[in-house]
Amino acid sequence: MRQEPEHLGRIMVKSPRPSPAASRIQPASMRSDNWYPDIPERYRKWEFDDFSEAVRAEANKFFIPDKTHYDNIRHEPMTIYLHGNVGTKKTSLACAILRRWRRAGLPSQCGGGYGEFVDADRFAAAVRNLEDGRHMILSWRNAHVLLLDDLGAARSTPAVVEQLCFLVSYRYNHCLPTIATANLSLPELATALDARIASRFQEGIVLDLGTVDARAVAK
Asked: What is the pTM of this model?
Protein backbone atom coordinates (compact mmCIF):
# COMPACT_ATOMS: atom_id res chain seq x y z
CA MET A 1 0.00 0.00 0.00
CA ARG A 2 1.32 3.42 -0.97
CA GLN A 3 2.23 5.45 2.09
CA GLU A 4 0.39 8.74 2.48
CA PRO A 5 2.69 11.69 1.77
CA GLU A 6 4.21 13.24 4.84
CA HIS A 7 3.20 16.57 3.38
CA LEU A 8 -0.43 15.94 4.28
CA GLY A 9 0.33 15.26 7.91
CA ARG A 10 2.23 18.40 8.80
CA ILE A 11 -0.79 20.67 9.18
CA MET A 12 -2.46 20.82 12.59
CA VAL A 13 -6.24 20.66 12.38
CA LYS A 14 -7.88 23.31 14.58
CA SER A 15 -11.13 23.91 12.70
CA PRO A 16 -14.39 22.28 13.84
CA ARG A 17 -15.26 18.91 12.37
CA PRO A 18 -17.54 19.08 9.31
CA SER A 19 -21.23 18.39 9.60
CA PRO A 20 -22.45 14.76 9.35
CA ALA A 21 -23.85 15.53 5.90
CA ALA A 22 -20.46 16.76 4.70
CA SER A 23 -18.75 13.71 6.17
CA ARG A 24 -20.92 11.41 4.06
CA ILE A 25 -19.49 12.83 0.82
CA GLN A 26 -17.08 10.28 -0.63
CA PRO A 27 -14.37 10.76 -3.26
CA ALA A 28 -15.06 9.19 -6.63
CA SER A 29 -12.43 6.52 -5.96
CA MET A 30 -14.60 5.17 -3.10
CA ARG A 31 -17.97 5.21 -4.87
CA SER A 32 -19.48 2.34 -6.83
CA ASP A 33 -19.97 4.55 -9.91
CA ASN A 34 -16.41 5.67 -9.55
CA TRP A 35 -15.92 7.44 -12.87
CA TYR A 36 -18.79 9.91 -12.71
CA PRO A 37 -17.36 12.89 -10.81
CA ASP A 38 -19.27 15.33 -8.63
CA ILE A 39 -20.27 17.58 -11.50
CA PRO A 40 -22.90 20.02 -10.21
CA GLU A 41 -26.36 19.54 -11.70
CA ARG A 42 -26.24 22.86 -13.57
CA TYR A 43 -23.25 21.76 -15.64
CA ARG A 44 -24.24 18.19 -16.50
CA LYS A 45 -26.19 19.20 -19.60
CA TRP A 46 -23.27 20.80 -21.42
CA GLU A 47 -21.79 18.98 -24.41
CA PHE A 48 -18.57 19.71 -26.23
CA ASP A 49 -20.52 20.58 -29.40
CA ASP A 50 -22.40 23.35 -27.56
CA PHE A 51 -19.35 25.59 -27.90
CA SER A 52 -18.08 27.53 -30.90
CA GLU A 53 -15.82 25.92 -33.46
CA ALA A 54 -12.96 28.22 -32.44
CA VAL A 55 -13.26 27.21 -28.77
CA ARG A 56 -13.51 23.52 -29.65
CA ALA A 57 -10.43 23.75 -31.86
CA GLU A 58 -8.36 25.16 -29.00
CA ALA A 59 -9.78 22.77 -26.39
CA ASN A 60 -9.10 19.81 -28.67
CA LYS A 61 -5.38 20.47 -28.28
CA PHE A 62 -5.86 19.04 -24.81
CA PHE A 63 -5.80 15.38 -25.66
CA ILE A 64 -9.29 13.86 -25.86
CA PRO A 65 -8.78 10.08 -25.78
CA ASP A 66 -10.50 7.61 -28.04
CA LYS A 67 -9.75 3.92 -27.73
CA THR A 68 -6.02 4.52 -27.38
CA HIS A 69 -4.62 3.00 -24.21
CA TYR A 70 -4.15 5.52 -21.41
CA ASP A 71 -0.42 4.77 -21.11
CA ASN A 72 0.11 5.92 -24.69
CA ILE A 73 -1.07 9.51 -24.15
CA ARG A 74 1.65 10.62 -21.75
CA HIS A 75 3.38 12.71 -24.41
CA GLU A 76 0.27 14.83 -24.98
CA PRO A 77 -0.47 18.16 -23.20
CA MET A 78 -1.70 17.06 -19.80
CA THR A 79 -3.18 20.35 -18.56
CA ILE A 80 -5.73 22.83 -19.85
CA TYR A 81 -6.27 26.18 -18.11
CA LEU A 82 -9.52 28.00 -18.92
CA HIS A 83 -9.68 31.61 -17.74
CA GLY A 84 -11.92 34.60 -18.32
CA ASN A 85 -14.44 36.89 -16.71
CA VAL A 86 -17.37 35.58 -14.66
CA GLY A 87 -20.07 34.06 -16.82
CA THR A 88 -17.83 33.10 -19.75
CA LYS A 89 -18.79 29.40 -19.51
CA LYS A 90 -15.43 28.22 -18.20
CA THR A 91 -16.90 25.60 -15.88
CA SER A 92 -19.43 24.52 -18.51
CA LEU A 93 -16.68 23.88 -21.03
CA ALA A 94 -14.46 22.16 -18.46
CA CYS A 95 -17.29 19.80 -17.48
CA ALA A 96 -18.06 19.07 -21.13
CA ILE A 97 -14.40 18.11 -21.64
CA LEU A 98 -14.38 15.97 -18.51
CA ARG A 99 -17.52 14.11 -19.59
CA ARG A 100 -16.02 13.56 -23.02
CA TRP A 101 -13.08 11.80 -21.41
CA ARG A 102 -15.49 9.50 -19.64
CA ARG A 103 -17.45 8.68 -22.79
CA ALA A 104 -14.25 7.80 -24.64
CA GLY A 105 -14.02 4.57 -22.68
CA LEU A 106 -11.04 5.60 -20.57
CA PRO A 107 -12.21 3.98 -17.29
CA SER A 108 -12.09 0.41 -18.57
CA GLN A 109 -8.67 1.03 -20.06
CA CYS A 110 -7.37 2.31 -16.70
CA GLY A 111 -8.46 -0.76 -14.78
CA GLY A 112 -11.19 1.14 -12.95
CA GLY A 113 -9.98 4.70 -13.30
CA TYR A 114 -11.95 7.67 -12.04
CA GLY A 115 -12.39 11.39 -12.57
CA GLU A 116 -12.97 14.11 -9.99
CA PHE A 117 -14.53 17.58 -9.88
CA VAL A 118 -13.51 19.88 -7.02
CA ASP A 119 -14.09 23.60 -6.65
CA ALA A 120 -11.94 26.03 -4.69
CA ASP A 121 -14.27 26.20 -1.69
CA ARG A 122 -14.45 22.43 -1.32
CA PHE A 123 -10.67 22.12 -1.58
CA ALA A 124 -10.16 24.81 1.06
CA ALA A 125 -12.68 23.08 3.36
CA ALA A 126 -10.80 19.78 3.02
CA VAL A 127 -7.54 21.49 4.04
CA ARG A 128 -9.14 23.28 6.98
CA ASN A 129 -10.51 19.95 8.24
CA LEU A 130 -7.55 17.82 7.25
CA GLU A 131 -8.38 14.96 9.60
CA ASP A 132 -11.55 14.31 7.60
CA GLY A 133 -10.40 15.82 4.30
CA ARG A 134 -7.18 13.85 3.91
CA HIS A 135 -8.80 11.00 1.97
CA MET A 136 -10.46 13.53 -0.37
CA ILE A 137 -7.16 15.25 -1.12
CA LEU A 138 -5.50 11.92 -1.84
CA SER A 139 -8.36 10.96 -4.15
CA TRP A 140 -8.05 14.26 -6.05
CA ARG A 141 -4.29 13.81 -6.25
CA ASN A 142 -4.56 10.35 -7.81
CA ALA A 143 -7.61 10.85 -10.08
CA HIS A 144 -7.01 9.83 -13.68
CA VAL A 145 -8.57 13.16 -14.72
CA LEU A 146 -9.09 16.09 -12.31
CA LEU A 147 -11.10 19.29 -12.75
CA LEU A 148 -10.06 22.13 -10.41
CA ASP A 149 -12.78 24.76 -10.61
CA ASP A 150 -12.47 28.46 -9.72
CA LEU A 151 -8.81 28.50 -8.72
CA GLY A 152 -8.01 31.54 -6.63
CA ALA A 153 -11.65 32.20 -5.71
CA ALA A 154 -11.58 30.83 -2.16
CA ARG A 155 -9.76 32.46 0.75
CA SER A 156 -6.21 31.30 0.21
CA THR A 157 -4.51 30.62 3.52
CA PRO A 158 -0.87 29.47 3.50
CA ALA A 159 -2.07 25.93 4.24
CA VAL A 160 -4.46 25.94 1.26
CA VAL A 161 -1.77 27.26 -1.09
CA GLU A 162 0.73 24.71 0.22
CA GLN A 163 -1.61 21.78 -0.38
CA LEU A 164 -2.66 23.10 -3.78
CA CYS A 165 0.99 23.41 -4.82
CA PHE A 166 1.59 19.86 -3.71
CA LEU A 167 -1.47 18.57 -5.57
CA VAL A 168 -0.74 20.35 -8.85
CA SER A 169 2.96 19.48 -8.74
CA TYR A 170 2.25 15.81 -8.03
CA ARG A 171 -0.13 15.56 -10.97
CA TYR A 172 2.28 17.45 -13.23
CA ASN A 173 5.20 15.20 -12.27
CA HIS A 174 3.12 12.04 -12.82
CA CYS A 175 1.59 13.26 -16.12
CA LEU A 176 -1.99 13.05 -14.84
CA PRO A 177 -4.48 15.10 -16.92
CA THR A 178 -5.69 18.21 -15.09
CA ILE A 179 -8.33 20.76 -16.15
CA ALA A 180 -8.53 24.08 -14.30
CA THR A 181 -10.77 27.14 -14.47
CA ALA A 182 -10.20 30.60 -13.00
CA ASN A 183 -11.16 34.24 -13.36
CA LEU A 184 -7.43 34.99 -13.25
CA SER A 185 -4.86 34.88 -16.02
CA LEU A 186 -1.76 32.82 -15.24
CA PRO A 187 0.33 35.89 -14.26
CA GLU A 188 -2.51 36.95 -11.95
CA LEU A 189 -2.75 33.42 -10.55
CA ALA A 190 0.99 33.46 -9.83
CA THR A 191 0.51 36.62 -7.76
CA ALA A 192 -2.69 35.51 -6.02
CA LEU A 193 -1.56 31.96 -5.21
CA ASP A 194 1.92 30.78 -6.15
CA ALA A 195 4.16 31.03 -9.21
CA ARG A 196 4.77 27.28 -9.10
CA ILE A 197 1.09 26.54 -9.67
CA ALA A 198 0.89 28.96 -12.61
CA SER A 199 4.07 27.53 -14.12
CA ARG A 200 2.69 23.99 -14.19
CA PHE A 201 -0.30 25.14 -16.26
CA GLN A 202 1.78 27.39 -18.51
CA GLU A 203 3.26 24.36 -20.24
CA GLY A 204 -0.15 23.03 -21.30
CA ILE A 205 -3.10 24.55 -23.14
CA VAL A 206 -4.15 28.02 -21.96
CA LEU A 207 -7.49 29.25 -23.28
CA ASP A 208 -8.80 32.79 -22.68
CA LEU A 209 -12.62 32.77 -22.86
CA GLY A 210 -12.86 36.57 -22.79
CA THR A 211 -14.88 39.05 -20.79
CA VAL A 212 -18.50 38.74 -21.97
CA ASP A 213 -20.82 37.54 -19.21
CA ALA A 214 -23.19 35.15 -20.99
CA ARG A 215 -25.56 35.23 -18.02
CA ALA A 216 -26.01 39.00 -18.37
CA VAL A 217 -26.43 38.74 -22.16
CA ALA A 218 -29.11 36.06 -21.75
CA LYS A 219 -31.35 38.34 -19.62
From this structure: 0.76
